[in-house]
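Q: Could you write out the predicted structure for this multi-component system? I'm mainly interested in how the pieces pack against one another.
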Amino acid sequence: VLRLFSRPMSRRMRGAYRWFDERTGSTELIHKGLYEAVPEKGGWAYTLGSATLVLILLQLFTGIFLLLVYTPSFADGWSTLRFLQDSDRFGSWVRGMHLWGAYVLILVIGLHMLRTFLSASYKRPRELNWVTGAILFFLVLGLAITGAMLPMDQAAYWTLVVVTNIPHYIPVIGDGLRQLWRGNSDFVGQVSLTRTFAIHIWVLPFLMFSFIGAHLYLLRRHGEFGSWVNYPAESADPERAEHELGERIRKAEPPYPARRIERQWSVPRHTVEFFPTQLFKDTVISLLFITIIFVFGFLVGAPLSDQANPATLTYVPTPEWFFLPLDQVLVLTPQTYLIFAGVVVLIGVGATCMILLPFLDRSRERSPLRRPEVLLPGLFLTGLLILLTVLGANRLYNL
Amino acid sequence: MGAHLAATPPLQPVPTSLLGGQLAVAFVALLHVLIATFLTGGSFLIAVSEGISIARNDERHERLAGGILKAMAYLFSFGAALAIFWVLFVLLGMWGTFFIALTRITFWPFVFEASLFLTEIVLLYTLYANWERLRAYRRVRFGMVILLAVALWWQQFFIDVVASFMLTPNGGDTSQLNQYLNPTDLPLTIHRTAGNIAWAGAIVAAVAGVRYLRARRREMRVRVENPPAERSVGAMSATWFTDADGSRAAHAAATGNVAFFDWVGTWGAVWAISLTMFQPWIGYSYAKEIQLHAYPAWYRMMFGDLSNVFLLQITLLGGIFILGNVFFWRRMRASKARGRRTQVAVLVLLVPATLLAAVPARFGWTYPDVVAAHQDRPWWDGGLLNPIGTMIPNKVVALLVMMICALVSLTSFLRAHSAGEVRWGDATRRSQWLLVSLGVTVMLMMLTMGIIREHSRQPYLIEGELTIQGQHILNPTPGGTVPGSPSP
């Protein structure tokens, strides 16, 4: 023991690390994580995935802080948040960050999916990357809407009423689902809140982190990028180019070799190490989003309206902005079976098509302009969602 | 001088009837709208084509951009003169009281509008006069084209502020914020942005259709006048390489024009259909805002005498989609492209959807007429109502079907095109007449929309605030009155 402490500090640290590394293989793990070859082109466009992960972790972090104060109670939920807003030194800021974090996360994950869609990164062998990613998108939306129901102010209460009623429009099983969520079929109460809280902090996060694990595993297995951008053909002749690309992709499917191995280095043609080049870009973009969340969380915060009052006749419930397209569709289809057709069928079919996109688009084409059969409906739906959001916001502003 | 003015009798109204004034507005305004909207949409198409021509070194796009710009310059000259006539003689001369009131309320939007008008003049004529010279500075030219499109869009935005305020003035709140954020401003702006591009696309397609037919005739004449040389190597080299008799150049020019106008027609039709696809949702949201904030106008539109014009409008919308679908079908058939059956299947769905949308909800002129006659029962109960033609849910379902059909039709065509199965220059004569019909139908659509929007406010010029006879005047400034206006 005396000999151990008589060594210089640096040697002692190295020895400790060797001991740890021998048992855990941490050096190999770090090397695997940092020294992967990634394509040189399109690095900035590919930072949105890591930004999404960082934002999800930020949500987890701020959510844990909120859990230290919040009580999921019909009677006391609002008061605990009022205390957080008014009496806690950083409570209002942390709550604001949780809200703005959710907003930015939805935007970033949407942009990440749009980028993946345009660059056809969901094609073989990355079909399951897309499927897990699309499911993650819906889980994040689920987390956002269940989170909006918890503060037990007027907005939260009426969101709880409206959203837990949506299953009612599903034929046969709809009423059963509504009863399961609400605890009874007619009105919302403490049971509805408890179940929503459980969904928000346990069910959805459990599913989300499971899918994140799967998504990251698949990402490392198939390589960082999978875009057409990275696979320029040598030949100008379309047929030969297609053949050449097919051959190159087939031979050199990721994981990309970290060292030059025969000719496989040619896919993608120009690469850089993940560390430090790509990690630098990822860090810059993630920090930018975190800064936006910090600033908006501090300056704007999260609203907390009056305590929930089921007897009110004057309060006009308004949805969160990311559900405005759905709300606008509901307003424009004001009849029971139109609601079913518009909300359940159209959106249900749309969501299913979105998740199963890699199995619907089986062509070998990766360039967006050569895939109009998926590009056009995709852009049309994206355009429609943006339009309905803007028009819905305009309607609510003028109510 | 002062004594002479003092002796002048008081200003007299322009000797015209109310109907005369209304007809003047209808004629001049609709013509003005057709030109102005084409300029806005056309500038967007120029920007897109110029951008593509730079990015992909595509000469077709450069030629198209130059062609649209030239057309815009000519139309703008006429349109600007018409606008001056419209403001000076029709609005100030015949509707002075109203127009002064409106100008004083929406003073700043008009100021911005006029400033952008000047910007438009500078940019458009500079581009027109120097289009070829600026070829050496493509990026500068592209920048100017972008600026032109932006200026024109903002011009449209500011006039939308005025037009939407007239329909939904929110109880006469004349604050700047309310003018810009009045309930129908944003829906109208989005509606017109998409509509203007679609309209410009339809006009480009129609003109290209006519030019294609002419180019095709010329090509046939060239072939007859300059028959191909004998098919020997020597003869071919004589004609192809020495161009001794000029037939090669003539052939190439004629064939090039045919292919070019075929491509332009299709390009225009693609824009027209793809932007119109969004309009059912946008238009429906716009109508919803009118229902919420100008109910009498909405009632007139949906149940009153304008409901028949509205019915025509929804039928024309179906007509646009059908014409687009049949064009794509025939265009694919001419090139023997795959996926033609999809177009036929779409047509089979589109026609009944359009018929369902066209069926009136009552067999009477207006709903109040039917109620007054105590006939508000379904026709199978001896009444005059037709529940099959109701807006909700049947016409809404028909609109959804139309939209999805148009999307499938367009996607199918573009898929064939991206697979290289559409050859430019193959188009038949009939397909070009379809493009011309598409242009005419979109124009009729624009006219009916203008009629509906302007007439839905009657008897008001500013909904709920200022009647057509000028009996109710908004106070543009607190405590002030509009000069020359009758007391409320």
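A: Regarding packing and overall arrangement: The CA atoms of residues 386 and 454 of chain B lie 28 Å apart.
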